[in-house]
Protein 1
Amino acid sequence: MEDLDADDTNQPLSDLLSELQILVSVSGGAASSSDPPPLSDSILSGLYSHLSASTGPSSLVSRLPSIDLSLSSLLRHLSSSIDSTSVKPSLHASFAYLSLLLSPSSPLVSLFSPLHFLSILRSLRRYLKNQAISSPDSTKQKPKTKAHSKFEQNRQPGDTSNLIVKVLGLISDLLTRIQLESYNDTRKSLIDTISEIMGSSHYHALSNSCFFILRIIVSESGHGDRGEATVEILRLLAPLMLLSIKSPVRVGVIGFIGREIVPLGNEDEGVKKALVFLPRFLANKAPEKVEPRACAVETILEITNVFNGEELLEFVDYVVKLAKGKPKLRLLAVDLILGLLNISKESDSGSSWRVVCLKALVERCSDTIAGIRARAIGNIAQVFGEMSDRREEIGMEGFSDMVRRRCSDEKAAVRKAALVLITKAMGLIGTVDASLLGVLGSACSDPLVSIRKAALLAISEVFRRFVDGNVTHEWLQAVPPLIVDNETSIRDECENLFLELVLNRICQFADLRPSGSPTSSDPLFSEPLLHFLKGVSDREVAPFIKKICTSLGKKKKLKPFVATSLQNIITASSSMHHAPEGAWWLLAEVSLYTPQAVDWRFLSHHWKLLGDAGRKEKLCRNDGEIETVLWARDRVSLLNTISNVSMELPSEPAGELAESLLSRIEQFNMHLSEVDAHVKSLMTIFKREAKTPEEGNMLVNKSSECLVSKATKALKLYLSKVSETKKESDFATPQSTRRTKGKSKSQSVSSPHIMQQAVTAVFTVGSVVVVCPTVNLHESSNDSLGLIPLLHTIITSESDNEPRLGVLSATTVSFKVVAPSLYVQSWATMAKICIADDKIAKRYIPLFVQELERSDLAALRNNIMVAMADFCVRYTALVDGYIPRIAKSLHDPCEVVRRQTFILLSRLLQRDYVKWRGVLFLRFLLSLVDDSEKITQLADFLFSTILKAKAPLLAYNSFIEVIYVLNGYQAQSSCDPANEPFPIEGMDERSKSKRMHIYIALLKQMAPEHLLATSAKLCAEILAAACDGLLNINNATGRAVLQDALQILACKEVRIQANTTSDTAEMDEEPVTDSAAATSAAGLALKGRIITQVAKKNLIQMAIPIFIELKHLLESQNSPLTGCLMDCLRSLLKDYKNEIDEILVADKQLQKELLYDMNKYEEAAKAVAKGNKGMNAVEERCKSVLRDVNQYKATPPLSAMSLPKVKGHVTGQSGGLGCSRPASVLDSVRRKQPFESDDEN
């Protein structure tokens, strides 16, 4: 039985030997076969199965002599099989070869062949290559059955991986028994193969075997120089170190270096040197993209963590030099410096290398590449603590100037980084000057949302640290206007910052108020508190503060302690003439949402106090006008506060207050700024006292009619006085004049009081109409004559065709001359009446338009413009026909009127009450070149943001018409001459520069395809029109149109810049992935190439023939525009200088002229550049001489200076200062006549 079992066990080996014997007999024996054939797949499979057992190799080797086959012959057959193209048989042959080679009875040293070993390595790489090729295809091919798919995808790769693991194990055993010292190529190939395996998808299964092989190569002394081996290993593993941070391959490689390479570096100098140079090698191999570059930086820093002090210093020197290299390396150096500075080592904390790194980082903040500047500034924000500690060592005297320049950088990423730096590192900047504050304020109105957010935080951080007057003023001018921003997050942040930095601070300063009576050395209120209160009530800021308080109140963020603190401040200022400026105004805004926090006794006391103080100041103080205005402003705010808290007032005091208000209003002797507040408070209290809304409305109507009736009487009284005075002056004689001299004197004393009472009465009527639009204005209760006819008489007193009232029918009085204030207020009140009554509006809107055009009072024109804007909202159809006439106010002589008109019309355009049609767009264009800087800034913002969003095609569609209109060329203008805007005519430089500014502003709003179409339209509609005679170039306006067209075609704004992107694209709010970025870049590149090709085609097929014909026409007329045309052609063709022969094939003469002009232009440019260098050298020389003079250094003698040597008249005589030319030569020179060559002409 035992013999039978032995026969069964040896049966596979016997069958394998039989097959081998057949193969040997077929091949002719071992000795005769120089190139043995490969083994069959069945034999290789049998060998693999047999040799996988522990005793398989020894049993097979012992039985080979029985079949007359030597081990060396079998190994040659196996080496032929290793080179097979089939992957699995090749791997089986590799396994069998290594197993037999490593068998105990095998003569390893004599049988080992490096060629056969290289074949094994090739089989491994062949397998990896096939896997890489088949992986994408396997996803496309559908398996026939699910079982077949499972077998192919799961079983087969797993079997092959196990086979590779066995092969790698045999290779590691082989390396322990042989030495590769004399086989350098074999060692390099082995390292290369291992690195490929580690970068493949089989890393998880094969990583241990690969790292074990690499450890043997490095640690064993018999495999060559350790330093050279380490260099080869690190060079081939470098791409794996630059993989993603979370990649297991990268983690494994870094771990291998830390476990194996670093300890060997302490023993071997070559390994240590290779390890020291590894970070430099990785720095040169680092990719440019953001995420891979960050991984490279992380890897380099992990390796440098094991460096000692000297090695770290060497690497720091290398990084600093890297910061001055190519852009890619500079960007990497900036990130490396940040990582090096974050290394916390006690031994290096005070070393000088950190200062060197900080200096290099500061230098990169002024790099020529925007991305490097932004990155350096952002990195400084992360190490600002250390930089502030080493300010003197780094030399950061001009750091604040650098930050200011970067805040106004042309690139959005740099601006944002600088603003973030200010937010995080105010300690680095130190004091903030006015220029930096101005830059931060301007950044708050940047077109990009991200820049506005960063600027908001930056200027708020400055305001948080410094509370002086300049910072407070700039913050209040920049931040509160952001409450009307389109971005919700900016509005919310604006509200929160106002609550934190203004309202809460006011409360804190109120609590810190010193106790006791104030002295000169101990003021009652701190200076920051006074700045806050005065700033929030500023006329330009107040509307935005109102919006902020309204939003905070609706969100219930306004707390009662704010109103309480303001009351405490006002109460504490009782000893002063008035409360701090702005305190009452802010209390009025806050009290609307915190009415319960306002004490009625406080309001009652100050109501009496302000009244008495106001009357006393009017009578006693010399500067009564200024004090009266402050008093009136506080009184208005007090009345608004009372109106806000009227629901909380007791009934009896409320009734007394209403009687007091009504009596004051009926006297018509208040300051006009108080009237609205008095009327509003009175009507609010009436509604408060009423039991039902109907009763409240009845009380309001009754009191309103009473006020209107008394105002009508006051106005009629004044009109009768004016009529009587006019009659007496018309029929007066010299004797009567002397007799009535005393009487006239008395009338002159009372007349101003009556006129002021009439003005206040008219203004009061307007306030009443706003509060109660249903009040009866047509008839008075005591007289059939109402208020509207009186107002009509006043506002039409300049017209001779209007009927007169009875009191003025006998004479004509011009109230514009007699009482201009009454005349202006009558128009304002009539406008309020028209808003309330549409029937009256239909009759009087034409009068408003007429007065707007002919009035010489700037205040009246401004008021009418405001009224027309309200009419446009209320009666859009009525006003729409007058828009061209209203738009003429954009060119009003008064800057205030122009700015008011621009703002109002812009708001109407945004709300679609007015459309961009007719001449309105053309009139708006002239605001771009207005004499007022504020108006030009508003116009630039309108055209760059609002217009671009509302009407993106308007600039393109109107461009040709704009050229004709601005030059005043009526033949091609489609505008009505009566409504045409003021043209900027003329060939002078000022007019041309203004027109070009407008053209460039329009070109900047166009897309690339519209720029291309605009160029074609300029050629077809202006240049071709000039060639065909449709454009008359014999007159000045026609020549101006043609010259403008040529200059536009020559300017850089009309050219297509295919390789540039906008700031908005540069500052994406969300970071894009590498694939998305690559796709976007490829799309932009493709679009750029297409646009460039179309532009070239358009130039060759359309523009050049027109230019040639136009040149011949201009030359035939000896036109001065020929030079302008040649300049335009030179500018158009400078990018196609090598293709001019092809483009200008139809006109060889023009081709030669253009080439000549281009060469001359380039030579002139070089000469100018050289001249600038020469001027700089002269300037430096002058500075050096001045420095010598300042240092009391004597000027060197003339003999010590280097002078040019000149030949003398006599041969051999050296020239000098005393040398002179003979008289005959000088006379001949004088007799020569000057001439001008054709070339110079």
Protein 2
Amino acid sequence: MSQRQRADSTGSLGPDDEVMPYSDDETDDELDASSEGEPEEPPEHQPGAQPPVDTRASDLGWSVKSNDRAYHQLPEFQRKVFLFIKKSKYSGNGIKTYKYNALTFIPLNLFEQFKRVANLYFLGLLILQIIPAITTLPWYTTLVPLVLVLTITAVKDLADDLARHRMDKEINNRKTEVLLDGGFQETKWMDMQVGDVVRLKKNDFVPADILMLSSSNPNSLCYVETAELDGETNLKFKFALKITDEKLQQEHQLAQFEAMIDCEEPNNRLDKFTGTMQWSRHSYPVDLDNILLRGCKIRNTDVCHGLVIFAGADTKIMRNGGKTRFKRTTIDILMNYMVYAIFALLILVALGLAIGHGFWYKHIGSLAWYLYDGKTYGSLYRGFLSFWGYIIVLNTMVPISLYVSVEIIRLGQSKFINWDLQMYYAEKDTPAKARTTTLNEQLGQIEYIFTDKTGTLTQNIMAFKKCNIGGKTYGNPMTAKGVPLDRGKPVDFGWNPYADPKFEFMDHSLVACIRSQQDQETLEFFKLLSLCHTVMVEHKEGELVYQAASPDEGALVTAARNFGFVFLNRTQDTITIKELDHEATYQVLALLDFNSDRKRMSVILKFPDGRIRLYCKGADTVIYERLSPHSLHQETTQTSLDIFANETLRTLCLCYKDISQAEWDAWSRKHTAASIATRDRDAALDQVYEQIENDLLMIGASAIEDKLQDGVPEAIANLAKADIKIWVLTGDKKETAENIGFSCQLLTDNMKIHYGEDVNEKLRVRQALRRNVAPTFGNKKKPAEPFFPEAGKNALVITGGWLNEILYEKKKKRRRLRLRRLGRRTLPASPTDGQPINDFEKEMRQVDFVDMACECEAVICCRVTPKQKANVVSLVKKYKKAVTLSIGDGANDVNMIKTADIGVGISGQEGMQAVMSSDYAFAQFRYLERLLLVHGRWSYIRMCKFLRYFFFKNFAFTLVHFWFSFFNGFSAQVAYEDWFITLYNVCYSSFPVLLVGLMDQDVNDKLSLKFPKLYIPGQKGELFNFKKFFISLFHGIFVSLIIFFIPYGAFLQTMGQDGEAPSDYQSFAVVTASSLIITVNLQISLETSYWTFVNCFAVLCSMAIYFGIMFDIHSAGIHVIFPAYFTFTGTASNALRQPYLWLTIILTVGISLLPVICLQFLSATIWPSVGDKVQRNRKKYEMEAEEEKRPPTFQRGGGSRRSGYAFSHSRGYADLISSGRSIRRRPTVAGGARNSIREGENI
């Protein structure tokens, strides 16, 4: 079979792919220590080894004293926060994410609202309207809408902030036990302080970053679940120092505990902690294994005690949150520029009309005695007053109601997302939640998606799916006799009392083979799985509970358990299993643990009959190199491995070796010597392991499925068709991330995959070329040549170490710290030392990397830190000017979520940090497809249509005043009645366009998902831009011309049927207003794609409201009550009883709408868009959609590739087991078989 393409490596030494790097996140003490005597490049070191750290107290800037709150309030720990106000540098444990309180809400909210230019403009306009010499409109025409806008926005902001208050209050008011006044007292989280001793119980959340002191478990062992930090549900272990565990078990001992902890300053490194504890005149080193991080959950530990080191904002989980950024949509930004453009246009028009008024008054107005107004102002001053008068008259070009309407539409669209039952996850009762109301239309413009892997794409659940034993493959649906089935049913494991009821397997022939006990290779296969691991077991209420360092290993041991080989118990040097019908205890002579270089683990056991055997499991790439030439089934196993790999299953090879007593004795001496080596111990051990792990005999291979969430491959495929690029940013190791890339079809076998060394070399060549061709500073012209000119698809898989190397991050930090230590300034880099010459070159390196990544079909960044995730998002935003979305489920994704334009949190897991920082939240990744392609696209289309129409109707309304100015001496006289101006945007034309903004859809949700190409116009911003804005402007100009001049012509030299001439100003105002209302309401009807009864009712109702209110305010009764405010007495009834005025209205409306109808018809017929084509065949597509069945989750690949090996990302529990820390008293196991094992076997 063809092998998957790999880009050639340059062969140069580079960063360790398995180490998660930290660049500027690194603490100075770490880099200072690790940089001692280093060359420019970081040195090679043993995988998994921690860099040497100088833990001298002088380098550690954080001091914590136990049981002494007053110590942390001393003056030397105070810092100035404002003027003379000082505060302790030690944060309290309360968190604050809200913006307002009862005192600051009104002033702060008003301040924020008036930072919006339009609101400030209308406030200034209101002030102008109060000035009698300037005003041309009553003050209430501006005050009413302004107060309405401010009130609606304030209520929305208040509701959002109250939700934040509730969430903060819920967290801050959680209870925990704190040691106060000699005893433990229940205390709120917010009242805890640094230096407090706390008691935590099983299933408690850890309230702060705590140094563990003791626990109820053996040797102070404590299991924690880190789902809230990284989305992983497998348990990790922490333990206390031996000295504190022995002496701090009782309450009175803890109350007398007086120690000083000197440690690193608060930072965001989740994988590192360095400090020392001074107690009883002795110093004890403290590291991350002794620290319980805030957000973790205590599991399988009844009670543990700890000392608060970092609280509140200083905790690592909060430090990883990044800055909360104010997010605005591209349409918001565009609208602001358009408002500036309208404002500039308004000033120019008002200036031109003011000049016209001055000229008119000088040559005409001042000479006509009948126009004398009793004022002695000159033409220049009158022109000045006219300018401000026209600013007031034409203010509706910048409509204040626009912002109210936008907020209402966004609120409604958010509710539709919340109410969408197709985004509701019934299994965990989790609906979708729009946590913001300001970004909905941005969902329709996403170009890049950055996603976490664990818990986001995957369920973090491993399932044993298939295996190959002795050359025969098991796992496909088969009967007990080996007859293949099209549709099988799961095996019934009722014969096994220890079976896990959740385990499913479809091949009945494997169970039959095991129960017959005739095939020794099959029995040996599952015996290996039950013995060769670092899993630990607990007995709870008669049930076995396995704790594994990785879910992969847990799945293998669970599979062995179901097939009859049950791991029951282990001690420091024994392991006990039940082999079908009997128990056996094996002596563990040596445990050769997994690490990322070895890619395998082994165990050497002494059997009850005295035999010594090595069992080994690992990646096929390392196992095949160590097989004996006489090993059987190599070819058939290889074929099965290829098949498993194509099915995106994670594979392991299983093998064994019998060892003689003499060989064991000789090797054991070497192993003991390596174990106590003081230098390069890990390297010495690996070398000794190599000597015994050879001449292995193959048993078979296992295949595990890393379960994707339902619908992930289809969602990714559909999003890719919408021209959305998906990048995976994960802390997982390279093989695991790459394997998931194939599982979810992000990577395919026909892609050429480029790795860090290849990428670095291509960028180095491009950089050298640029230096030769364009050495001048400031020349930012990018080379036009693509990085991958050859045909075919490319993918990028890059680790965090290479990312730092490529972007100069780590070199920059190390260089600066080393020079600082030597007391020298940073010298300019030379072109040959691998450093950027200047900031421009560093920036171009980043541009090159982003350009290269964007040429690829898929990008996977693995072993990256939370800060690196955010940096990658920032680079794409900065250099591609693209709209980005980040999705994740853990605290390590928070920074990335906050950095992207849209942040999405996966809810329903234990961890809620990502959800709390997100803009949208739901339970499954597949819902992202619907959020973007349906809700996002609809929101974008609706908002664009709303804005285009809103600008049009206001231009058409306002510019009538402009044309009227040429016939009234540019006197700032309005063309309409005052109340019509006040109510036009509030009552007469708002409801139909609001409904379009809320409910319109060009095609339904099924067709939106069926045709992802419909999403592309939003990415390109085709539906609302400056071109569309000017089209709306010219459309408004055209309609305003028609609305003014046709009635004007109709009123010239006319006479009514009763012999009276109705050509007065008030009748003219009624006719133009009526024509305008009918035109704009019919215009929105032409724009509506999705008609419902509500839309039809809104259009008719708007016109009915207009005529109803007009006849009321033109009545004699209201004029009698308020004669100064209602002056159009009887105008409507007098004008609208004339038939020719109705004909004038009809003619005006017809001429206004006819060009629009013609253009829409020609556009849909001659230049149809994708949406037009889909709409035209909508019925056909809807029928096809109903008949279609959903495709399978994913199709199996055709090429051969190697899947990721099924091990954890770091070492397992081997060190813990061999140290004896995890050993408990052996529980009694049902059946009493344990008593039959002689003590002599446990030698």
Protein 3
Amino acid sequence: MENITLENYLEALANTGCSDNEKLRQASEFIESAKEKAGFCEAMMKIASNPEYNQEGGFDVNLAAAIQLKNMAQYHWMNSQDGQLGGFNDFDDEEPVEETKGVIISQEDKEFVKTNIIQACAHAPSFAVLALFEEIVLVVAKFEMPDRWPNAMTEITDLIQHGEEGKVFGGLTALKQVVKRFEFEFKQNRVPLDEIVDTLFPTIENMLVNLMDNMGESAMKAKNIIMNTLYLANNAKICKRYRDSDNFNSLMSVAFKGLTQEIPEEFTTPTESTDIIDKLNKNDFWMLKKKCITLLNRVMIQLFKENEAEDDLKALSKIFLENHSKELIDIAFLILDLSLTKFVASEVVSCAVRIINRTDKAPNLLAIVLERHEDIVFKYSIPLLYLSPHDIEEFTENPVSYTRGLYSLTISSLSARSYAIDMINYFVTYKENEKDESVPPYLEKFLTHCVETMSQPSEDFRIKESIMLAIGHLAPHILPYESLHAGVENILKDHIFPELQGENDFLKARALWVYGEMPIFVKDSHHAVEAVSNTYKCLLDECIPVKVLAGTSLHKLSKIKEAREILEPGIDKIIEAYLKIMQEIDQDELVNGLEEIINLFDDKVAPFAFELIQELNNKFIKIAESNADSLSDATLAGNACLSAICRILSAVSKDKDLLCRIEEIIYPSILLCLTEEGLDFIDDCLDIPVLVVYHRKLISEKMWDLYFKKFRMALGDENDEEECENGGIGFEFVPVMMSFFQNCVSFGGESFFNYQIEGVTPFQLMVKSIRRIITIERNVFSDVYSTSVCAMKLMGTILENHIGKIDEVLPDFIKLLHSELEANPTSKIYRSSILQTFSICFVYDTSLTYKCLEEQHISDPMLKFFFSSMGSFTKTYEIRRVLYGIASIISSDLTKAPELLKSETSAIMNVVVVLINAYVNAKEKEIKQELTEASQMKVIESQGLEEVDDVKEILTKLKEIKQNEGKLMDFGLDVGEDDDDEADELIFTAGDLELYDSPLEKVDAPIYFKNIMSELQTMNPDLYNTLTGFLSKEQNDILAKSFEKNEMLLNIEKE
């Protein structure tokens, strides 16, 4: 293959389209090999550009060559001559194709493409080839502009100004792609775009104005290209040129002209044919209107943002309000009017609705729209929600695909339907004064309008389906107004419920969805029983959308007391129905529904938990082995299966024999998730072994095997240079693995020290891994500490669970703690975790800790840092560990303590006062937050049907404590810096399931300390007097009140 001729390439390309499999194979192999040869891109461009190579009626060799050239550019242009492989850069939405990596395009080929691609756009033999050449221009522009393609803009300018139609088209097409290359650049990186706009846009604007009244095919295509280019230039940010008032007005004028031009009647005739609709949506007339209205919408978004527009746009905002706002809003309403009786491209309608919705950001614009308030509510809202012919066709012919898109059909950010829902929610519930607590004036009117419309017989089921959709989305807006609740339940009874028993599957599916959105309004017990009974029957329906929506709604209705009572005897049949549906469709919302049913009836699940987990596990394995995309419905459903398994495990947690059987069947799935192919499922999967180990309270051989595999996955192979430095594929999941590791330490018993794999015990592996975790994180993230916090947790877990058994490693632990503190970590949470672990060293063995400190000559720095940091501990879990450490210090033989500690013995109680005060205040805050969340969740989950008096009573008690006692004053020590914010703390405590019972949590910390002091008063009164003798009356009062308040809080916790 050293000397490949053009004829060789032509023959191979022609054979890629033949029916002879052997010729096809040979041709494909030839082309793959030839890609690595210099001259391949040059040959493909020459073939793609020359129509003479195409045989009449034969295979399109031009197109085949253009595809090869486009793929070469798209996947290999970024690969450099030194063998460094690139990937798609920030401009790309796609990911590189792995099979095509490694090919290096020769510099000669690159130069040939750069020199000829723009001219090739002007001579493309077909629009299909031109479309591929466009993509090549974009790729080359991404990697070569502005510095390494200096002639590009000169060539484009020459073509645009040439006058010959083909060359003008080629120049405009190339210009559009170059502009696209800079579309999302900002600041200095956007300067080249502004230069291009200043140089060429006056020319193309004049061209657009001159072409505007020309309705010929070529003129329409040229107008579309130019308008698209104007849109791309101003999409992310209005260009500098158009921040000038004259140029801005010109831009608005030409966009309005294109938007308001009449369209031939043949392109506005209503049709139910999806094929015709697809063609009309892509028609040049509608494409032009789409580009014009999209440009106007983007300009409006930038001028009227949630927060104020940029300073240099404020003048434009004023110009827009004075000169263009009314015209744009009138056009938007004109489009909506037209859509009631004519065909209007869906994206044009969608954009018109968005423009109307956007006026809520500008009072002056909103005032104009509110002049048509009644039209919005009563004329446009329901028709805009009509199912499209595409929806109806898909529901009938491809119900699985329709069902997977159910949520996008109702709330997708891209659908006209979703914007119409936003419009209804805003304008139906609009009030001039947001503080006015009365019912919005149009809300009750709209509900009445819906009832009147549904009461009128109609053959068009879409009307009622749209009304039900609108009412369902209004549920949260209706909820605050109790005066409407009874009327809404009547709507459900009289107009929605009958559809549960009806023959129309569209209406049945929508009725099920409505009941799922509005269970709070089902107050009548007979209504509740009937709604739930019929929803259950729909689980057994033949129509896939119907039974899926029954599955996603039943669990919400099941929270009604009467519903639970009727469903409870048949829970096994309900779960069986869910599993049957899950065999037909991968839908995470469906699995979530099953999970909620299991949660509601957890005490009834045990008899068939094993079979249920088997089904879910088999479903998961099938999904995992299908290699579905990480964001696909299948992957989401796979994760939902794992989540449901976790819920079942929690429900049967007391049955240890059952947990053992479940461990056997689920183990292969866990191992699958520890591979690179299973990473999409690892978050949910890692919770399963935590639940098994925590509730079995022993570690089986399989779980020890998993223990070793998890560490290997997280930390990689030490013998592999890259993994030794950067860790394994699962390093980022170490925080999620923590509960499993901690429970293995806690329940491992002697096997933690004796069980071996390849001569290494779990204890030895963990000790070694602690330092490796810290080292890897420093290598990968020099200033991030989230995984290092986990290392400290592991160290503390070993110390608190195996007192007296690990003396040989304590010196190394203390040495590591000192070195990490000495490195002055920037994270307050990491510093705190180090000091908490240091405190647990005293709990483990105070005398041995003193000895280690003295032998390493670090007593003074460690103790000074420890005691000077007391004001920085603000969370109960921090303070608890520190209090236990200090309690160990004062209950030990202080004569063996380092000199610094002996000399400051009397000051220890000053620290204790601060800590116990802080602990009680933190505990109060945590309980308040928990009770508030519990109260809210109880209201939400019960849909307002369950009593919450007990929660309110507890909250009242807390309020009384606060009023009577006041916040205990902070004493003495300076408070440290503010804690890391909540987001940072979430990172450091990451783990979806934190199940681990620390031995230090068995007794409340202040009570434990109080007991230690009582024992000390009896056993060593001299030390007791030394510790307490220097406390002031104020400090003693604070301590007494703290203990008293802590008792109150403990009683509240029990309640």
